[in-house]
Design a protein that fits this description.
354 residues; alpha/beta; 7-stranded parallel beta sheet; 5-stranded parallel beta sheet
Length: 354
């Protein structure tokens, strides 16, 4: 009988010890193209042919060549797709649930907390005009009156401090709220899926989305990309915001309408934006965001890219998920939890590995 075959569909220099643990468990490993080398044309038929006999898929993000229903439908033995990263917007998770396939992601401390720290860095850079002040010194200017910055926290002289609005209150936003705690700012959040206890434990005031947009001086997005969150910030929502407000997006590019944001900044209806994730990546040279100078702070979708961290913790989570699934067990990092009852009926207790 042939060994179960695991496809690493988007390899990223997986550590040897990870690969050794797979092979020592009795698994054969196949490899796809590296994520940045994958073609952006018609790929479904080729991908489906490669996955047809696989029991598990592992890999990083491949947004230009997503894992579609058609691909998964060809893989009758497929038990699990295990991501090295947090986001699963490159997988049709509804289809995976319909087909009884678990999708596991990796909201690791290195990843999530790295994004939270980048969010803080972007927020402070924008509010304290770090880039602008550096530029002016290099140009020979000194303490120009228009270079005053924003004081974040409440003061004893009666200054109330600013309001930070967090869209989503998952792991990343919760960490942001913890990092903000010593600053004495007001923190509000919108998350219709978070338990009330999460708001209580973080000391964050729960509000609806429209209230958050109206009251916040900084609006920071921390949501996964779904049908509900896709372009949740468009012209209609921007009109509710303060003209002095700043947008931060370290989530997914298609959460905000970049053209609408750029237009609002150019017209003075928003102060600026700090963006790590874009609608199309790499960011096109013709993007209107490039025309706004230091009113927009940009980062190449690398908020979680930290020395000593990168993807290794996520690869370890993916390995654990794959080994659990091949033993007929449910891992602890399943994203599409609704699939679990059906998955147990199909695969529960059936061990494919040693």
């Amino acid at each position: 009988m042939s060994k179960p075959n695991v496809l690493i569909y988007a390899p990223r220099e997986e550590p040897k010890d990870i690969l050794d643990r797979l092979t020592s468990a009795g698994v054969d490993i196949s490899y796809g193209e590296k994520a940045w080398q994958m073609p952006r044309t018609d790929f479904e038929a080729d991908f489906a042919a490669v996955t047809r006999d696989k029991v598990a898929l592992m890999g990083t993000s491949i947004r230009h060549t997503p894992i579609t229903r058609a691909i998964m439908a060809e893989a009758q033995r497929l038990r699990v797709i295990a991501k090295y990263t947090v986001g699963v917007d490159d997988i049709d998770t509804d289809a995976a649930t319909d087909l009884g396939i678990m999708v596991c992601h990796a909201p690791t401390e290195s990843n999530c907390f790295g994004v939270a720290e980048t969010t803080m860095a972007m927020m402070l850079a924008m509010l304290k005009r770090v880039v602008q002040r550096d530029r002016e010194v290099r140009e020979g200017k000194w303490r120009e009156p228009h270079m005053a910055t924003t004081f974040l926290g409440a003061r004893e002289d009666g200054y109330p401090g600013i309001t930070i609005g967090l869209v989503g209150l998952g792991r990343i936003a919760t960490r942001v709220s913890q990092l903000l705690a010593p600053w004495r700012v007001k923190v509000i959040a919108y998350d219709p899926y978070a338990e009330p206890s999460r708001f209580q434990l973080t000391g964050v005031r729960r509000v609806d989305y429209e209230t958050l947009l109206r009251e916040s001086d900084v609006v920071s997005f921390h949501v996964v990309l779904t049908k509900e969150t896709r372009f949740m910030l468009r012209e209609e929502q921007i009109k509710l915001m303060k003209p002095s407000a700043i947008i931060i997006n370290t989530a997914r590019g298609k959460v905000i309408d970049e053209a609408a944001v750029a237009k609002a900044i150019a017209e003075g209806r928003l102060r600026g934006a700090a963006i790590d994730a874009f609608e199309e990546e790499p960011l096109g040279m013709d993007s209107p965001l490039r025309q706004l100078g230091d009113k927009v702070l940009m980062s190449p979708h690398s908020a979680s890219f930290n020395e000593g961290g990168e993807l290794r913790p996520g690869i370890q989570w993916a390995l654990r998920a794959v080994l659990s699934a091949l033993r007929g067990e449910v891992p602890d990092n399943v994203y599409n939890k609704d699939v679990i009852p059906r998955w147990r009926e199909k695969f529960g207790g059936t061990n494919l590995i040693s």
